[in-house]
Specification:
seven-stranded parallel β-sheet; 12 strands; about 30% helix; elongated
C-alpha cells in the first residue's frame, strides 16, 4: 500500500508531483496521512497538523533550530530536514566569496581610482579550513580540487572526509585558526557553535586570512569581527549570513571595505524549490520502501 503524504500548509503542484513520483499517494488533509511535507517556517501551524498516525515529517529548511526551540520536533516520529538538498548551490556561492576575497574584488568594486595594490592573490595552493563538512562542506571540497588547496575538514565526529587532507573533530577546531588562509563556516547553528568565531579566534588567525560564512550568522561574534576588521587585524570576510539578520541599515559592516556581504542569497528561491522537490521525491521513495531517510534530525545534537 502506498504511504499517504500530505503537503502543507497549502497545496503545491511541484511537491504533489514529487510525492507521486516517489511512490506516495497525495493526502489532501493531514488527517489520515502517514507523513507530512511542510513547506513553511511556521512551527505552530505544523504542530496543529500533527497526529499520532504521522510517522515522518519532511521540513523545508536545512537548519532546524527554530523547530527545536518551538518544541515541535518530538521523538514520536522521524523528522528530516533539507540538509544535503542545497549543498551544491550553497557551495558554489561559497567558492565565489572565496575567490572574491583572495582576489580582493570586494575592494576593487568600491575603488574610485587605479590602484595596482588591489591585485590580490590566487587561491592555488592555499590552506582552506571547512568547518562543517556536511552536504555543503563536502560539495565545496570537491569544487576546490582544481585549485590544489590543502583542506582541513572539521566535523563533529572527526570522520575522514573525502577530498580533505586533514579531518578533525570539532573539539580540535582550534588547530585551524593559525593554519588557514581561508576559513569557511558551513556548520549548523547550535549552542556549541554559537560565536564559534570570536575575538580570541580572530586574534589567532593569520592577519590576512579570509572568513566565509554560508551557515548561520550566530556562528560569528559580529561585534568582534567588526572590531578586528576596523583595526586591520584580520584580512576580511565574505558573509552570506549575519547576526543580526537582516543586517540593519547603517551597520558598520556595510561600510567596512574588508567585508563582502550578500543578502542570504547563496540558495536562490527558484533553485531551492526545485532541489527540495527532488530531495522530497527521493525521501518519499525511501519511506515507501522502508529505507533510511536522508537528512534525519538528531535532536540530541540539535541538527
Amino acid at each position: 500500500m502506498k504511504p499517504r503524504i500530505h503537503v502543507g500548509p497549502e497545496p503545491d503542484e511541484l511537491f504533489a508531483e514529487a510525492v507521486e513520483a516517489g511512490g506516495g499517494e497525495l493526502a489532501d488533509a493531514p488527517d489520515g496521512a502517514d507523513a507530512i511535507v511542510w513547506l513553511e517556517g511556521d512551527p505552530a501551524g505544523l504542530g496543529d497538523a500533527l497526529h499520532p498516525g504521522v510517522r515522518w515529517v519532511q521540513l523545508s529548511s536545512a537548519g532546524v533550530e527554530r523547530w527545536l526551540a518551538a518544541g515541535v520536533v518530538d521523538a514520536e516520529r522521524q523528522w528530516t530536514s533539507a540538509a544535503g538538498a542545497y549543498g551544491e548551490t550553497v557551495a558554489d556561492h561559497a567558492l565565489a566569496l572565496i575567490l572574491a576575497g583572495r582576489r580582493r574584488l570586494h575592494e576593487s568594486a568600491r575603488a574610485t581610482r587605479w590602484d595596482p595594490d588591489l591585485a590580490g592573490r590566487p587561491l592555488f595552493g592555499c590552506t582552506v579550513a571547512v568547518i562543517g563538512a556536511g552536504g555543503i562542506g563536502r560539495a565545496l571540497i570537491a569544487l576546490l580540487a582544481p585549485w590544489r588547496c590543502r583542506v582541513l575538514a572539521v566535523t563533529h565526529s572527526g570522520r575522514e572526509v573525502p577530498g580533505a587532507d586533514v579531518s578533525l573533530r570539532a573539539d580540535d577546531v582550534d588547530r585551524v585558526w593559525p593554519e588557514a588562509d581561508v576559513i569557511v563556516l558551513a556548520a549548523p547553528a547550535t549552542d556549541a557553535t554559537r560565536h564559534l568565531v570570536g575575538a580570541e579566534e580572530l586574534t589567532r588567525c593569520k592577519p590576512d586570512a579570509w572568513l566565509v560564512n554560508v551557515a548561520r550568522g550566530t556562528l560569528v561574534d559580529t561585534d568582534a569581527l567588526v572590531e578586528a576588521l576596523a583595526a586591520g587585524r584580520f584580512g576580511g570576510a565574505g558573509l552570506d549570513v549575519t547576526d543580526p539578520e537582516p543586517l540593519p541599515d547603517g551597520h558598520p559592516l556595510w561600510h567596512e571595505p574588508r567585508a563582502l556581504i550578500t543578502p542570504h542569497a547563496a540558495n536562490p528561491e527558484a533553485v531551492r524549490t526545485r532541489a527540495l522537490a527532488d530531495f522530497t521525491r527521493d525521501n518519499v521513495r525511501r519511506f515507501a520502501d522502508g529505507e533510511p531517510l536522508q537528512g534525519v534530525v538528531d535532536t540530541g545534537r540539535g541538527y
